[in-house]
Request: fold
Amino acid sequence: MAKFDLNDDGVVVIIGSGAGGGTLSHELTRRGIKVVLLEAGKRESLASFSQYPPEAFAQLTWLDPRTHSGTWTVREDYPTLPSWTAKTVGGTTVHWTGATPRIQPWEMKTRTTYGEMKGASLLDWPIEYDELKRYWELAERRMVVTRRHGNPGLPASNHFKVFYNGAKKIGYKRVHTNYMAINSRPADGRAFCIQQGFCVQGCKTGAKWSTLYTEIPRAEATGNLDLRTQSMATRIEHGPDGRVTGVVYLDSNGREQRQKARIVCVACNSVETARLLLLSESGKFPNGLANSHDQVGRNYCFHVGGFVWGIFDKPICAWRGTTLAGIVEDETRHDPKRGFAGGYHLELAALDLPSLPLAGLPYNWGRDFASIMENYRNMAGIFINGEDIPRATNRITLDRNVKDSYGLPVAHIHVDEHENNGAMRAHAQQQSKALFEAVGAKRVVHTRQTPATHNMCTARMSKDPRDGVTNAHGQTHDIANLFISDGSVMTTPSSANPTLTIVALALRQAEYIERQMSARNI
Amino acid sequence: MDTHVPVDRREFLKGSTGVLTGVLAAGSPLALIAPSRVWAADLRVLTSAEGATLMAVTRTIAPHDGLEDAAYAIVVQSTDADAVKDESLRKLLKEGVATLGPSFATAPESERVAALRKIEQTPFFQTMRVKTLGTLYGTEMAYRYFGYEGEAFSKGGYLFRGFNDLRWLPEVPLADSGPMPVPAP
Ligand SMILES: Cc1cc2nc3c(=O)[nH]c(=O)nc-3n(C[C@H](O)[C@H](O)[C@H](O)COP(=O)(O)OP(=O)(O)OC[C@H]3O[C@@H](n4cnc5c(N)ncnc54)[C@H](O)[C@@H]3O)c2cc1C
Ligand code: SF4
Reply:
């Protein structure tokens, strides 16, 4: 592994080593570009992942506080965890469950397709679907996605059999074991999935793609990567011309360091990305970096979500098997006759026993609650994943009253869900109930909105600088050598789980950065 | 995973203020694995009476009649351990217990539920609810009671240990699923 000097102003500094930052690090270093990768978390490994869920949660999750407000029900149900992300080398790709469906063509043109929606800030993407398709395909090959490019699907678990038969009985046509960045056979030097169901705790076989054991070690092998763990970026600095010059961070000993840079790429996962841009306020940029149009942190999107649990009178043992290997694609369409714009996926989802009460049934106690838990062996689960409607007022700001362990103001998340979300969620809950009842569920219960595992759009790509923060390459409109390299740049969230798109955009951005560097534009 | 039976007594010499004790039911699967059917959980800041009240609170929040008291004692012991480090929590717990009164621990369930409903919005109740739901189901006793098999990596996953043994529904066509990655051993 390389070690670059703090004063080396020829390096690219990437902040965050997850889906976006980890992939970008590999792509730049393999092109011979020197990269310093700053990551706030520690480095774990297949061997060090804990298989005791509460311990794994503490090992991987971003636990520094975030505050929140607004009318979303997450405030009541998950007061301390509005957004669920990881803080570890590999970022949330260590936690994630590997589902990688693509965005639909019209989902990149929501303003055009859905029209004027009251209280919404819809916007068409500045990239064409066909342009991005090429990069989704590259990303799918890179991540070895099942059911794409000749990769077999994952086999059907007990849990999937329940989901599949119910879905078919109520007339769904496109139901399968999902597109998964999880090996259905040995590939990419990694093992195949042994159906443990510990995807969220860290996959000890490495069957699940994570930048921790794919992109990052490959980047290290090029000799061009200097990965600094437990290094928390606290501000990005700029020169008198407004171009960024380096990054200030606290190292593993809590000491402040200053790394110079030719280019800075921020990939901290939307909430933290917006926070870091805002924390970098200066005399020249009093509202934070890349924020001349007051767009940083606005239009924050998650996915319309929630669990639905079907309780049967026979055992299912849903914990045996890949956590999210099942999808219904039929509701992924824009059909206003259903009473809402946009679409959603129904995805199969299991939760381990220790996590189920607080994560999956967050509202209850007493006999009724206990009677649900008593049926743990006989439960099947669905996770709803639908398109959230962006609003300019749903946004990330700094909460100057609450400081994290680094002494910095924490991110504050404000969300008032658009009414479209409620209509969509109710429809998805109804369909899930019908699905389970079609195969004999004796009771169906559901949660409200779950914490945001998918965080997007806080520095969105826009054609017009007044509508967003970056251009179609994630380059900020305001500062030519400042890039955003994670899900923050998505113009709208679509109904697809975001990681495939984050990786695709990172692959595309790397090509652009190389071209711009060669042309000496940056 | 510090959730075995009997509950850990290592801290005893450092001075404990209270203790919870019990006997595992004969014939309970746990009685077979535990070194002794008698268990004890030392408390560092709560008295035995306070511990007993909190035990009753946890059981009222998550009432599983067949689940051993020892599992609930782990929740109380873990709460007590948190309170060692956190003075405001200690105060919250002691005041909460005092509000519920001395008869709470032995009151019938309907009365305990009514008493807790009244304080449902208080930080004391919310703390105990989150603590109970976040701790109880991670105990080894809960794993066994609910039939949860947990960690599977060391046993080769569930691929050949029942991930697809459900027979009460038709099988899924291969086109919508996928082949087994390797033949059965
Ligand atoms: C339980 C769970 C399941 C999921 N399942 C799926 C799924 O099935 N499919 C899917 O598409 N998506 C899934 N996701 C979401 C997916 O993990 C994220 O979309 C993706 O990882 C985001 O990539 P990212 O690069 O934006 O950020 P991350 O992968 O979160 O990486 C950001 C990194 O930046 C670091 N960081 C943040 N701030 C700083 C700072 N100031 N200085 C230094 N480092 C910093 C963080 O520690 C972190 O490691 C899931 C998420 C969760 C929590
Ligand atoms: S189920 Fe498969 S992907 Fe998930 S942790 Fe196990 S081996 Fe990894």
User: Anything to note?
Assistant: The domain at 12-46+67-518 of chain A is CATH 3.50.50.60 (FAD/NAD(P)-binding domain). The pocket of iron/sulfur cluster (ligand 2) is lined by residues A 182, 193-199, 203, 205, 207-208, 322; B 157 (CB under 6 Å). The first strand of chain A starts at residue 12 and ends at 15. Chain A has a mean pLDDT of 97.
